[in-house]
Amino acid sequence: MIQVVLVIHLILALAIIGLVLIQRSEGGGLGIGGGGGGIGGLASPGATANALSRATAICAGCFFVTSLVLGILANASTSKGSILDRLDEPAAASAPAEAGADDEAEKKADKDTPPAEPSVPVAQ
């Protein structure tokens, strides 16, 4: 399901890019299809601009909807929920559960040794 929505999402993104590029700019620099066409005709510059603007708006709305659907589907596929919920979990869950005799010996040695003195003299 996610793959189908993702493909539709990518097609909409490419359609929006294409529609924006073929629209006539204010200065007419990158516009395609300018000139002629007669007064009030179907392919007049005003009618073409309205059709392209409407198509861009529809594609943008569909792109927004597919973005929301992808977010909902991605959240539903994770079993743990929000990433903020996972911050409260203890980090020890990912550590190995077995503690060997070497670990106990290191802990005992750490308790017996005095703390090291700072290497930088403290100003008095």
TrEMBL record:
The answer to keyword Transport applying to this record is yes
**GO BP term, pick one:** protein transport by the Sec complex
List membrane-spanning regions: 51-76
**Superkingdom:** Bacteria
Quote the cellular component terms of the Gene Ontology held in the record. plasma membrane
Molecular function terms from GO? protein-transporting ATPase activity
Its membrane topology = Multi-pass membrane protein
Q: Where is the composition biased (Basic and acidic residues)?
A: 105-114
Q: Which UniProt keywords apply?
A: Cell membrane, Membrane, Protein transport, Translocation, Transmembrane, Transmembrane helix, Transport
Its localization reads: Cell membrane
Q: Where is this region: Disordered?
A: 91-124
**Where is it predominantly found?**
membrane
This molecule's function is given as: Involved in protein export. Participates in an early event of protein translocation.
Family the UniProt entry places it in: Belongs to the SecG family.
Q: What is this protein called?
A: Protein-export membrane protein SecG
**Organism of this sequence:** Micavibrio aeruginosavorus (strain ARL-13)
Q: What is the lineage of its organism?
A: Bacteria, Pseudomonadati, Bdellovibrionota, Bdellovibrionia, Bdellovibrionales
Q: Which gene encodes it?
A: secG
